[in-house]
Design brief:
This protein is an alpha+beta fold and about 425 residues long. Helices cover about 20% and strands about 20% of the residues.
Length: about 425
């Protein structure tokens, strides 16, 4: 912890973001405003609009119900100038539109490689969603975009308890793909990489999964994380357009005009030390999270939908003062209006060099201000749950606004400065 604190001290981000800086990433079914394990739907997931395809004010994959399978692909841009970069964005956008809208692949001379890899030839409903975002590094001196950088976008620093691997962190672009089966995401990635191979170099890749309940139950989340707790309790209602306008979508507030309709995206690849966790007693596990493991109810209640009661538990006799959900969201005036829309997936990467399971959480949250995420991590800094978590990768990104008309493409307003 001391080495992390030293790194934090050298970053001096308080003045820039106007918030106490950073803390540990959190895991578990937390209340709104915390950084609980990324949701798999419960507590506010809007169903994907049937047949919407690629077009819309906002990109797919933010508000929609998370798909059973996901893939996070971060890229480095190697275009020599902004004009070439703009062409790459056009190509990437066109490929994604073709994939999401079901546009047939072009028929080519049989002597040439086919335009499609054929992986999904027999699949009629892949359920593909794609979300493209840009990282802080895209706004360096390569393309003259520094003046257009979103106001709060920074390279993700070392937060408390982090052991970030640079091979699994940051990136100029991040593409989040979701689908009903793993090959849906892999097919889309191969198509995108084929179209942009000369201009985009894959930096890191993380495939992941959720397990949505086939029969959703009112008032209950649909899956559990790899610690075994309900995942996404008390997430803001993604179907409430006005609430999403306040909590998720960026507009005004000193932001560049092109950002309207986009959102800040925080990604944290967090290893869970599952063997250690499996040796902890149930009472200890529930005290660390602040919820009953079976029902997902707060320790002060009996149903998952109940709000934790802290006002009549000032000494933490029922819900410990350092429980995850209590630190994540103390449910007071300081956190009102700063809730995060939590999304994400579990992952498994086999075993490490010591023969231990390499499993965890690919956490994703969306928020209108990155400061809201940093304030939540600051509240969680030093929580006892850190003993079982090791953040190893991810990054901060900004999700580009959607495409609404012919001739437009993702990133056009960013690169041209025109609406």
């Amino acid at each position: 912890m001391s080495s992390s604190a030293g790194r934090r001290g050298s970053l001096s981000r308080r003045a820039f973001l106007g918030t106490a800086a950073v803390g540990a990433v959190a895991v578990g079914g937390a209340a709104a405003g915390g950084i609980a394990v990324a949701t798999s739907g419960g507590g506010g997931a809007a169903p994907a609009a049937p047949g919407r395809g690629f077009r819309g004010e906002h990109q797919l994959g933010v508000l929609e119900q998370p798909a059973p399978h996901g893939l996070l692909a971060a890229f480095t841009c190697v275009d020599p100038d902004r004009e070439t970069l703009a062409r790459t964005f056009r190509e990437l956008s066109d490929e994604l539109e073709g994939l999401l809208s079901g546009r047939p692949a072009a028929a080519l001379d049989p002597a040439l490689p086919p335009a499609d890899n054929g992986v999904l030839d027999e699949v009629t409903d892949p359920g593909l969603m794609a979300t493209l975002s840009v990282g802080a590094s895209l706004f360096d001196d390569r393309y003259g975009l520094a003046a257009r950088k979103p106001r709060e976008l920074v390279t993700m620093p070392f937060l408390a308890n982090d052991r970030l691997d640079p091979r699994r962190s940051h990136g100029d672009l991040l593409l989040v793909l979701q689908g009903k089966e793993p090959d849906v995401c892999l097919h889309a990635l191969r198509r995108v990489m084929r179209r942009t191979r000369a201009n985009l170099v894959l930096h890191w890749l993380q495939d992941a999964f959720t397990r949505p309940d086939a029969k959703p139950r009112v008032g209950q989340t649909q899956s559990r994380n790899l610690l075994g707790f309900k995942d996404g309790t008390a997430n803001p209602d993604a179907g409430d357009a006005e609430l999403m306008r306040r909590l998720v979508w960026t507009a005004g507030g000193g932001e560049p005009a092109w950002t309207a309709g986009g959102t800040y995206q925080a990604v944290r690849v967090v290893r869970m030390l599952v063997e250690r966790w499996d040796r902890a007693g149930l009472t200890e596990q529930e005290a660390l999270i602040g919820r009953h493991k079976g029902s997902g109810a707060p320790l002060s209640g009996t149903a998952e939908s109940e709000a934790p009661r802290y006002d009549d538990d000032p000494d933490g006799e029922r819900t410990p003062l350092d429980a995850h959900i209590r630190l994540a969201n103390p449910r007071d005036a300081s956190t009102r209006g700063t809730e995060l829309l939590r999304r994400g997936f579990s992952y498994s990467r086999g075993i490490d060099g010591a023969g231990l399971l390499d499993q965890g959480l690919a956490f994703i949250s969306y928020q209108s201000r990155l400061a809201h995420f940093l304030a939540a991590t600051d509240r969680l800094r030093g929580e006892p749950l850190e003993e079982y978590l090791l953040p190893e990768g991810g990054g901060f990104f900004f999700v580009l606004p959607g495409v609404t008309r012919d001739g437009d493409h993702l990133g056009r307003s960013l690169l041209t400065g025109m609406p």
